[in-house]
Design a protein that fits this description.
This protein is an alpha/beta fold and 262 residues long. It is 45% helix and 13% strand. The protein has a single domain, classed as Rossmann fold (3-Layer(aba) Sandwich), CATH 3.40.50.
């Protein structure tokens, strides 16, 4: 089923107000602007606790490849099958699969990794709909704040794949691209899976951003756009071993700190 056959589920009345209601009004209140000092301190403590929780859960997962993708593609869609094959090949290459932990193409990647004999990790986000942990996860951690979740998806990864997706996938993709462009992380491989899906975006980047010198030519050349999971994984393997070396020192959980491995 081509992407054009996907039918919007929102009514015109629902589309009149852009966005979704938050699972709790707390995040909206937090992002409204300045609040009382006690409120701000409480949020800072909660964010710190969420960070520490993520670090503890994901400390032993090993070198990951993170796959971004939409929660809205069903198992019968050809992008689901493509992402599932990608997950299996990533696992067979010896990497841990990390996704946002939800349904759709995140599920496809985790499912493929399990079928490929690999480790499957999810960084789930609390949302009013769509985002429930899929059944193909060896370990998952749930976050309230999107920016904390995105940090975890980047921190433990040696490469990134953007499967077809919407605003969330674009947000994650461009954040990774910005981190690489500004030298905040190494020149990790970035793959866009689905030539037909991503070609209009690449045309816009080349025809507008690059043409107006808003980015450098190497910023575009760094991206691999492909329909082949085999090509994607080969590109990731070359980049991680040849360009800067894949170095990972296994760590053992410490009982004294109540740590548990995968």
């Amino acid at each position: 089923m081509p992407a054009s056959d996907l039918k919007p589920t929102e009514t015109s009345e629902a589309r009149a107000q852009w966005g979704k209601k938050a699972a709790s009004p707390e995040e909206q209140i937090f992002l409204e602007g300045p609040h009382g000092r006690g409120f701000e301190l409480g949020r800072a403590v909660r964010i710190f606790r969420e960070l520490i929780h993520g670090f503890r859960v994901l400390h032993f997962v090993g070198p990951c490849i993170t796959v971004f993708g939409s929660a809205r593609f069903p198992p019968e869609h050809h992008y689901y099958a493509l992402t599932r094959e990608l997950g299996a090949r990533i696992a067979e290459a010896g990497f841990t699969m990390m996704t946002g932990g939800g349904p759709g193409l995140m599920e496809a990647a985790n499912r493929g990794a399990k079928e490929g004999g690999g480790i499957s990790i999810g960084c789930n986000i609390v949302l009013p709909q769509e985002q429930k942990p899929n059944p193909y996860l060896d370990k998952w951690v749930e976050f309230r704040y999107l920016f904390v979740r995105k940090l975890m998806l980047v921190k433990y990864s040696y490469g990134f794949v953007a499967a077809p997706g919407g605003f969330g996938t674009l947000d994650e993709l461009f954040e990774v691209a910005t981190l690489i462009q500004t030298g905040k992380i190494k020149n990790f491989p970035v793959v866009l899976l689905g030539v037909g899906y991503w070609s209009p975006l690449i045309e816009f980047i080349r025809g507008s951003l690059l043409m107006n010198a808003a980015i450098n030519p190497q910023d575009v050349e760094h991206l691999l756009v492909t329909d082949s999971p085999a090509e994607a994984v080969a590109f990731i393997q070359r980049s991680t071993t040849k360009n800067f070396g894949l170095r990972y020192v296994p760590r053992r959980p410490r009982k004294l700190l109540f740590e548990r491995g995968v």
